[in-house]
Every structure is written in structure tokens, then in C-alpha cells.
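Review box. Two proteins, two foldings.
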Amino acid sequence: MFAGIAALAAQVGEGAASSTAISAGTLAVVYVLRAIGDADARLEEDRLRLLRAVRFAARFGMRIEPATEAAIARHAGELRGVSRERVGHEIRRMLAHDSRAQAIAMIERLGLAPTTLLEQGSGHATPLVAALPAASSTTSALCAWMLDRGDAL
């Protein structure tokens, strides 16, 4: 599905994973992250792909194709079966990047927060995370996320 950055870049470079949008008289390319083949099957092969899709989309300014996004939401509960170490590694990589607010917003919107954080509820707004300076630490980003969720109170 998301074999690596090189494979992803090759698809984007060839235009297979991009579309063109016209807005206010300007031409913009919108990059789309999508599963190869059946999204459900790809996510069942490796459940960590649920988070990798979010990390790649946020980091590279892509949107997730609707069918792939729906599959991620359907499989969100299955993230509990992935080792906490692997989940934590993906979350730390997301929180360490400037695109952390976009990644967290996607995690919340897709219903991945409860299984990622082992907490209830999802869909929380994340204004504190969005307001963090780009150079903020992973720890600061995680604390801001917990405050935004009301979990730290």
C-alpha cells in the first residue's frame, strides 16, 4: 500500500496520484494518497498502515482518497492489535514534524484517536496543537494534544 517514499514519489511524479484543482483563477495540483488495489485488504495486511497513511498525507500535504479514507475509518478499531511500540513510533514521527496539527486532525477525524491513545472519544478540535511553534518538541505536542482532548484535566 504505502511501500515507501520512493514508490509514493514515483506515483505522484507520474501524475497517477494527483488531480488538478482550479480555485480563484489559479491552477493547483492536489496530491492524493490512495491504496493500491483493495484498501481493506491492504490495511488488513499491515494495520500500522492506518497511521502511516495519516503520516504520509500530513507530511506531504496530500489528501487521502475517499475510498481509502473510509477503509481507514472502518479498520480504526483494529489498531489495538498493533504493538504499542510500533504505534508510539509512528505517533512520535508525526508529532516531531511541522505537519503535526494536520496529522492529529486526521487521526481525530478518522476515529483513530481512541485506539492510538487507548482513550475514549474522537473528533476533538486541536487548537493548542495547531498553535504550537514548528520547533516544538514531541513531548510538547503530545501534551497539547492531551489538553485539547481534555484528557489532562
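Next protein.
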Amino acid sequence: MDDYILSPEEKKSVNEAIEYAKQKLYEKSDKIFIPLAEKGSGVAQYNLALSLYNRGDFVNAAKWFQILAERGNYISYAYMGILYKLGYGVPLNPAKTKFILEGLEDLSNTGSEELCATEASEAAKFLRDAIEAIDKQLEEQNIQIRSFFLTLL
């Protein structure tokens, strides 16, 4: 699926849909994003995926992030890493998260183009920070669970 070039009117519609999504008016944003995403617009696909992710529809978010990742969108690749780390919308697979992070780090160090390397570096940082936050939250939950069970003794 190639990147569909938006007309000026479609660009305006996408900007409106982004505002709808920010306001959590998902029915309105989806009416704009979905047809354009299905035509191949990377902008619509990314914003649809992000909107789905933010509302907890991880299965459909993963579908669109995966399409974008396969087309070289590094931040979507990072989001896939988060989804695999948590097992949201995809099978739980921390090894795949690590593989994605290492791939982004390699691209950031060996990118043939400066822009490519910068985007990969930013996506790797985003994923690294997310992994750190997830691990911290999981550790805090484990401490709470252990504390709870100790109160039962």
C-alpha cells in the first residue's frame, strides 16, 4: 500500500479529524481517518492508529501501526514494541520488543541518511523511555502484591 497523497481538502479534513480525536469525538474522527487510511494515506493511518491506541483499541491500533512500521515509519515501529511489551492487541513478546529496540538503535547509528538516523534515534528513545516506565510500573505492582500477601500471613 503506497502512501496516498492527500488533496488540499483532504488535508483540511485530516486536521479536523485530529482535533475531533483530541476531543475524544472518535465517531467523527473515524469517519475521516478510516476511508483515507484505507486509501493508503500514511498521515491518516498514523493518526487513526494513535487514536485507537489512546482509546484502548489495541488490536486495531496494532493493525495500523504494523502497516506503517512495514513502510518504514519508525515511531509506529516503536509503538509496536510497546504493544508487544504489554501484550496489548498482540501476543505478549518482550523478546520482540527488545528486537525492535535494537533494530531502531542500529538504524540510528548506521542510518545512511541523517534524517533517517535522527528519526530512528527519536523512536528508539521513545521506546526505551516507555520500556523503563512499564518496567517501573510492573515492579511497583509486584511490590504491592507482595505486601498484600504478607498481610495475609
